[in-house]
Amino acid sequence: MMCIRKKAAAALAAGLCLTSPSAAQGVDQLVQLDILDGGRTAKGTYQGALRLTLKDGWKTYWRAPGDAGIPPQFNWAGSGNVGDIKIIWPAPSVFDQNGLQSIGYADQLVLPVEITPKNPAKPVRLRGEMDLGVCKDVCVPGRLGFDHTLDSQAGRNPAIAAALAQRPFSAREAGVAETECRLKPTDDGMQIEAHIKMPSAGGAEIAVIEPGNPMLWASQADTTRQGSTLIARSEVISATGGPFALDRSEVRITVLGADHAVDIIGCTAG
């Protein structure tokens, strides 16, 4: 049924089955996780970040990691006085991994998080786990724990500020005039073809389509440009293999270019 997904899964499994001294190591020997403090914001939230420092040549993955990547997942259940957590992803890089496209970060990732406390008068403790994958010649999945009470008096953190500056532009900031999504059924699910009227993001642009529903998966998009319009075509399939509805308002399209990235939320019927 899911021929594209099976191809990616088979390639990833092959990488995980390779043996080498690095593969025998745990993920905690290949990457170090630290919590950075950025103090309180003007609106009363806490600014922090998860910093992943990887061994030379290793990389880890973005929230939509591509056909050859391992998506990160977070468990904040052990945290204290946390009302809401917002993750701000810096624009990722695109890699070729055994002929498959993967999307992520090499050497280091500083991942900003903005925390809204339940009680502004009490301290905030970030405690939990991050499931992730790191890859070089092989891929190593694993889990890292963290436990840190945030410093409300901390000043501006240059590493966090730099990561925030690397976030994708919003559709408005990038001058996106219109985003249409045209849908049609396929043997396995549904084809989505996005037509985005926007200035070039620079170089050979790559669009990444996220369906907005964790039970749906989108294949690597075929991206082309026709004048002022970027066209991205992908197939969306369900994890259950059954029929599904695709809510255009939940579709998220990220355009990765040589000059900048653009984050587009939602599209209209074409």
Instruction: Tally the structural domains.
Output: 2
Shape: globular
Name the poorly predicted regions.
Answer: 1-24
Number of helical segments with 4 or more residues: 2
Structural class: mainly beta
Number of strands: 20
SSE series: HEEEEEEEEEEHEEEEEEEEEE
Cα-to-Cα separation, first versus last residue: 27 Å
What can be said about the biggest beta sheet? Answer: 6 strands, antiparallel
Provide the CATH top-level class of the largest domain. Mainly Beta
CATH architecture of the largest domain: Sandwich
Q: What is the CATH H-level superfamily of the largest domain?
A: Thiol:disulfide interchange protein DsbD, N-terminal domain
Task: Give Rg in angstroms.
Answer: 19 Å
